[in-house]
Amino acid sequence: MTEFLLGLRLLLGAGRGNRTRFFLMAAGGSIGVCCLALVLTVPAILHAHDGRAAARQPVTSSKGSADGTLVVQRSDAYGSRPFTRVFIARGTEGTRSAPPGLPRLPGPGEVFVSPRVHDLLREAPAVKGLLPGREKGTIAGAGLAHPDELYAYIGTTRGRIAHEGRILKGFGYDYAPSPAVEPSTLTDVRFALATLVLLPLGIFLTVCARLSAASRMRRLAALRLLGLSVKGTQRVNATETVMAALLGAVLGLGEYGVLNQVMSRTGLPALRWYPGDGALSTTTVAVCLIGCPALAWFVGRKSAREAAANPLAVRRTALPRPPSKWGALLLVAGMGIVSGFCVSGLLGHPASSVGVNALLVVGGVVLTGVGLVLTLPLISYVLARRVAASTQSLTLNLAMRRNEAEPGSTMRVVTGLVLLVYAASLAQGVLIQLEQVSRPSGPVQDYSLSLSALASSQQRELGDMAGVRTHAVTMNSWVDFERKSPGAAFASSATALIASCAQLDRMVRRSEGCVDGKVMRLVDPNSSVGSGVKPGTPFRFRLSGSKAGHLDIGFPAARIVYSGYSASAVGDAVLLVPPSALPEHTRPRDAELVLTSSSEPGQVRKVLDGIGAIAPIAEVELVGLNVQGLEQISVVETLLALGTIMGLVIGVAAFLVSVTDRAVERRAQVTAITLIGARTRTMRAVQCLQVVLPLGLGLALAAVTGKLAESSYLVTGGGAIRWDVAGIPLLSLAVAGVVVAAAAGSLPLAGRRIDPELIRRD
């Protein structure tokens, strides 16, 4: 208690500079705690989404009372978002409980919609076709996964849904039918967020706890020389850091509370939540209020160890010992693990992420990251010593001798930015792996819409829409089920693709033998579709329009050999019919309009939104892809982007705090060198080189190790992409930008003002 009271007295009575440093430590810690609270709350937000979605899920049965309530659930795509409609036909028996968010079950002709659907009905009146009935109210927040969800309950009669309706037993499941993020993917996202945010955050909080370390160590050494015990000296130093961390934690939780209210109302791309979803939990508050001061206590005691053990060396500024080499062992161990997985991919026998391999991948990535941090002081020390011994430049010699004398300060300056570059590669790997699992592996995406639900003008607009590579029509032949003889005409069915040769080329990988204006058979060597049809077999396709009738086509001998994509609307077609073969002013009756675009998720969302604007009530089938998967990619991209932004904020804040603090701590040395004749330009170059050289080396090492860690993750993921070569230019550009920004930020720190008092006091 005596040391605690002494620490408080030193904190409050050591002058304005000491109090300013204390509040700066608290302010810096509050930024870190705010980011930590946000990361810890993201899983709770997703869990709240899934919890409300599970609570409203209808519990049905195929058996029950003949007069029970019937329910049918439809989930379609409206643009790039799912639109869920629940049709309910109330019965005289069975459950009559309402789902969450509704006061009662809707009656025939009554519609309850979410607030977003309510607004959509005003913006796009054509959506009314999806909601037969009159609007009676809106669904409360308890019945919606998030505020922007498209959801509706539609009351109807038993006769309309009797053929497919199921008996309603109640509402509520233990799990969400379509979670916001799949559990396996959420594990990867948590890992990426921990790397992006928590590792730099630990460094940042350590940096804040070590503000003005040199002057504080001299003060502690003086206390030790006055007779204070070793442990007492450590407790005095820890008191200041703990109080600053505790104040910063309280401020940070308050900052997060304000941020949650703002972000929940404005929302993030693809991610919205209610303010209550992001409320601070007891666990989060405990981690912030206990964990951060505990980290500050540990850092404070450790940083005061040298002043307590050897106070004379601190007061006389003795040359510190070289950095420990033990941190390099962690880097070597982590690099060995991730390199082993990369080698397995290069040899054509990639290791799978099953069993112990899953732990090894995570362990390798973590060991590499931690080893990278702990090895930076040693790398800075070795680099500075060798450059200073060989250079003839005064500027470079001054810069490197200072880094040689204080290698630990280099770690505090550059570690946050180095970790950000390392973590950015891992985040890119998570996105690549998720896209490989959630979307087709081919470069194109097909969309299928019923032709009968589209007007001719809508068909033309959809074909001319921006982002659509090409369009075509598939039509199915008519089968005469009354003919019992197997050899009778029109006894089998076939799918024909109405397109030109140019349109076909844009829908498949490659094609050979196509002739415009001629009916030809389609043959894919990798598919058995149409292999049993003999030439001359007749097929009849029914038509509609002013000259309604039919189109009879005999199966031709001339063929087109093509290679299709794994998920394509062309895969079921056995005939290519030129558009000129259809009579004028006619359309196929049993047909689908097929649109083709790039499979890039952003482009898919753009095309879906365009379809929703042109034909809002048309049902869209995404060949090989579901809207929930597309939405999940958007959520994960948003979370990783949020993590990257937080990591960038933390890294930049750590850099600015560290470089400014180091400049202030070195004012005495800078003043002394300036008084003996060094020019301001020389001192600025020295300050810049002290940061840029170790930072450049650390960033280069982070880029290499990050790419190896990313590749090991992709190799064990089992996807088609194992080496992210496309991301190297962007990563290199980011590294160069960080170095330039760091150099620019270091230049103003060597001012022109000379204060001899700084060296007179020493």
Q: What class, by secondary structure content?
A: alpha+beta
Mean pLDDT: 78
Share of residues in strands: 5-15%
Side-by-side strand order of the widest sheet: 11-15-12-16-10-9-18-8-19
Low-pLDDT regions: none
Q: How many whole angstroms does the radius of gyration measure?
A: 34 Å
Q: Could you tell me how far the N terminus lies from the C terminus, measured between alpha carbons in angstroms?
A: 32 Å
Helix tally equals: 22
What is the gist of this entry?
The chain is built from 22 helices and 19 strands. It is of the alpha+beta class and 762 residues long. It starts with a helix and ends with a helix.
Task: Explain the overall architecture.
This protein is an alpha+beta fold. It is 54% helix and 14% strand. The protein has 22 helices and 19 strands. The protein has a 9-stranded mixed sheet with strand order 11-15-12-16-10-9-18-8-19. A 7-stranded mixed sheet has the order 1-7-2-3-6-4-5. Helix 3 (115-123) links the parallel strand 4 (110-113) and strand 5 (134-138). Helix 2 runs antiparallel to helix 18, helix 5 (183-209) runs antiparallel to helix 14 (407-438) and helix 7 (230-266) runs antiparallel to helix 8 (282-303). The radius of gyration is 34 Å and the shape is elongated.
